[in-house]
Here is the input.
Amino acid sequence: MGEPLVCVVIPTYQRTQVLRDRCLPSVIGQTHQNLDIHVVGDGRNPETRAMIEELGDERVRYSEVPKQVLPEDPGTRWCVIGLDNRNKGHDDAKGEYIMGLDDDDMWLPFTVEVLLGALIREKADVAYGKSEAFGADGSKAWYGNWPPMHFAYCEGAWISKHDLGFRYDPDCVKRGLPEDGDRIDRMVAAGLKFTMVDRIVHYYYPNPR
Here is the structure.
């Protein structure tokens, strides 16, 4: 297969079971198979490392960053959870394109193929689609709209060129935004070209806490 075309960054923290049972199968089973799947742990987690080694899929690799020190305020904490993992994954990504997926979320089987196709077809820098969210109370919600700006799409519903250079910024909280929304705004301000796919590509399971 040669060098991977798309890197998928999956930040994780102490959630080996849902990563194994929900997230990773949805990535490994993509119709587009030329992937570098980089799981990045927040702190040391031997259980997750062992699980990934047992998978036996050479496309899936695991690394760790020092445990992130999080703010005490719940709202501020939510804005930056996983930021160090995401940046580690972006810095070490292999491939021309990059995507992100939280460890408790999942993709539809065609997600990579559809988003990558749109990005290339439209000669865009970023392509994104819609998300279907499942609440802990059984409710559902849908996200994804045009034009691109903060909250236009969920983390997990996008693909971009790898060489754009936009990392996640801990100063996002000073601007009153979560890390992903702040990144979108900075990309828009830089004049990047976006395109949107009008279909669900991502299942989002919000943390009930």
